[in-house]
Amino acid sequence: MAIRFFCLFLICGAVRADFPALATRDEVTTEDVHSQLLKLREDVRLLKESYHQVVVEAAAQTQQRDEIGKHEMEIQGLKKIVARLEERLEALQAEKREQMKPPKVSNSTAVAARSCEELRRSNESVESGMYWIDPDGHGTGDAPIHVSCNMTTGSTLIPHDSEEPTDVGQCWDAGCYSRPIQYNATMRQMIALLELSSDCTQTVQYDCKIAPLEFNGESQSWWTDRHGVRRNDFTGGNSTQSKCQCALDNSCLDRKLQCNCNALSPIETTDTGKLVSSFDERKLPNRKLI
Q1: What top-level branch of life does the organism fall under (predicted)?
Q2: What is the dihedral of CA 202, 208, 214, 218, to 10 degrees?
Q3: I need a surface site. Which of 204, 223, 233, 288 has the fewest CB within 10 A?
Q4: What is the pLDDT of residues 183-204, one digit of tens each?
C-alpha cells in the first residue's frame, strides 16, 4: 500500500489594492467611480477564490490525515495477528519436533512396534501418519526407523532421497548415469521388515526424449537389487528382459515394443514399472538406478 503525503503551504501577506488618487470634487466623474467600483469587485472575487481554494486544500489534508490514522490502526491490528500466528507456529513446530524423537529403547517402557501392521493391531484407533518402528526387534540390532504408516491397510512406506524427478542431462552410452538410493533406514532394518511382510513393491518412473531403456536388444538402463545384482526388468519380475507397465497393459506407443521410451520419440513420454519382491524372490529394496 502506497500512501502519498501532501504539504499545504499557506502564504499570508498584505492585500494590496491600488487605488488612484481621489480626484478633487470638481474632477470626479461618473466614469471614474464606476471604474473604481469594478476594480474593487474584481479584487473581492479573487480573494473569495483564493479563500475557497485554501478551504478545499485544508479539508483534503484533514481527510488524508484521517486515512493515514486508519491505515496505522489496521497495521497495528495485523501486527498483533502475525504475532499470535508466529506463537502458534512455534508451538506446532515444537510439537512436531517432539513427535519426531525416536522412542527410548532402554530405561523406558516405550517400545516401538516391529511394523505398521503390528502397531495397527495393537491400537485400532491409531491414525495414519509418521511413526517409529523397530523391525529387527526391541533392544537388539539397529535403532528404530521413522516410516509412514497407512493404518487402513497396515502397509509401511520407507522414505528415501530419490522420490522427486532427477534430470540426468544428455547421457548417450548404456549405463552412463547412476544414482545410489539413500533410504531413511538401514539395510538390516529394511530386510527385517521384508521378512515380516508377505510382499513388497517399489514404483519407478522414467521420463524420456529419444532415450530408450533398450536399444538393438541391449539394455541402456537398469537397477541393482539389495544383493547388488543387476536387474533389467522394470515390472513383471523377469530380470532378463526390459519390460514396462505399458507392455502389461498393451498400451505402449509401439505395440511391438516393451516400453514407451524404446520408441525413440522426440516428444517427452513416460514409462512406469512396479518392482515386486515376494518372500520367495527377495530382491528389494532397489539400491541403485542406472
Answers
A1: Eukaryota
A2: -110
A3: 288
A4: 999 999 999 998 888 888 888 8
